[in-house]
Write a structure and sequence with these properties.
alpha+beta, Aminopeptidase, eight-stranded mixed sheet, 189 residues
């Protein structure tokens, strides 16, 4: 399997595109925040770390081998502002399994952008990459994230209790998934 989408990809309100060096400050604006990293394994990023992360993501725009990651910057079409990032990861090439993820600036929470971008990732994974099953994970306390998954008709498959010790506390994780056949049965996305 080789999947390298033609970029950028546009949805009704968003433009998903490769990262550029010019994105560092916009990414830093949300990745430095405690309220963004509260549910992530890593903490707030320094500007230097954010620069390194964005630089690494610039070349991650195709799925060729297992665990390859496709990272895309998300722009709002209305003003071309970078408002977040999304990822599609090839987790198991033989079993055609992928994982999606998303992080958005809190100033844009509640506008449906995460759902719109994640729906596009599912379409890319199923129609573009030919995946059979795509899953997403989040901290059990991250209600906004698992509600996005439920809006996408993903089903909760697991609730791992105290599965990892992160930032000085035991955390719980939810896993949601959807099959390609289930995605196709969902009318009028």
């Amino acid at each position: 399997m080789v999947y390298a989408p033609a970029l950028p990809i546009e949805t009704d309100r968003l433009r998903l595109r490769p990262f550029t060096r010019a994105d560092v400050d916009a990414v830093f604006a949300y990745r430095r925040r405690d309220d963004v990293t509260e549910h992530l394994f890593d903490g707030p990023m320094s500007h230097e770390t954010c620069t390194e992360v964005v630089q690494a993501r610039i070349g991650q725009t195709a799925l060729l081998a297992e665990n390859d990651k496709l990272f895309l910057a998300v722009e709002a079409k209305r003003d071309h502002a970078l408002i977040g990032e999304v990822s599609l990861i090839l987790r198991d090439k033989g079993a055609l399994q992928g994982e999606i993820g998303y992080i958005f600036h809190p100033d844009h929470h509640g506008e449906g952008f995460a759902t719109e971008a994640a729906a596009q990732l599912l379409e890319m994974g199923f129609s573009g990459a030919g995946l059979h099953r795509i899953y997403a994970r989040c901290a059990a306390r991250n209600t906004a994230s698992w509600r996005v998954m439920e809006r996408l008709r993903m089903r909760r498959e697991a609730h791992f209790r105290e599965h990892a010790f992160v930032k000085g506390a035991w955390v719980e994780e939810l896993v949601y998934a959807i099959l390609e056949t289930e995605w196709r049965q969902w009318p009028a996305r």
